[in-house]
Amino acid sequence: MDVRYIHNFLRVVDTGSMSEAARQLDLSPSAIAQQMRVLEGELGAALLVRHGRSVRATEAGERLFERGRQLLQDFEGLREWVASDADGGELRLGTVNTALHGFVPAVMRAFVARHAEVRISVRAGLTPELYTALVQSELDVLICLQPSFDLPKTVCWAELRQEPLVVLCRTRDAQQDPLALLRTRPLVRYDRSLAGGRLADRYLRAQGIAPLERMELNSVLAVAMMVDQGLGVGLVPDIGPVLSQGRDVRVLALPEQGVAADGAGSRPADARKVGLLWLNTSARARWARSLLECARECLG
């Protein structure tokens, strides 16, 4: 049995369409249909049923769908152990762009110093799409935002840092109150379709600030570049020194807010959490744990 057919079957069920699965897998719809027929023949059961232009899994298909991801993970782990020695092989890393532009290069340097024989491939993207690739065994470890949903037992999460919201302004405004800047200056907004942008939007609403919006961008660094050009101020997660390096940009901390949950005084401004995700069933989990150690050393 070709395990690729199981992988492609999972994609068909996920999308509910052979043509869409074929598009995502860069195959022809007829090739996908042929693979599904072969898989059904080898398993001796109908796996899919058509409903107009869509398809859904039969009862047998549902059983394969439930076990299929684990089967692929087990096979990937077996292949990795057989094909590589104790140190060699490939680590497939997924990372959000803000981390890639910030601390990831230093972490990669530390990891390579430990594992010189390991090849590394890096895919940048948003946390939801990277998570999907992780659970489908297309990636081995993620540096990403903490998911907002409960994780299955097979997925490990380790927090690396928190990135509080900060105000970006030009040097001439650095002595002003950050809340006053948000109220009176044009805002170069961070995209509200992204987690950091939604966090900033909630903060503005909580403070009763209705900003004068100049533009909305889906990149923290792009926001910093616009601030550098005098187009307004920004409210973004603090991704590190890269925000102001080589720019006429200053990073202002927001005032602490209210009372902490434990009643121990004020709490810091809202922050997003960045960390590592990996599958504890993967043969590459040992590299994920080593990457975690490197990241914690680099971030202090």
TrEMBL record:
UniProt cross-references to SUPFAM superfamilies, sorted A to Z: Periplasmic binding protein-like II (SSF53850), Winged helix' DNA-binding domain (SSF46785)
Annotated keywords: DNA-binding, Transcription, Transcription regulation
Pfam families, alphabetized: HTH_1 (PF00126), LysR_substrate (PF03466)
HTH lysR-type domain segment(s): 1-58
Gene Ontology MF, one: DNA-binding transcription factor activity
PROSITE patterns: HTH_LYSR
Domain of life (superkingdom): Bacteria
GO cellular component terms given for this protein: protein-DNA complex
Similarity annotation: Belongs to the LysR transcriptional regulatory family.
Name this protein carries in UniProt: LysR family transcriptional regulator
Species of the source: Delftia acidovorans
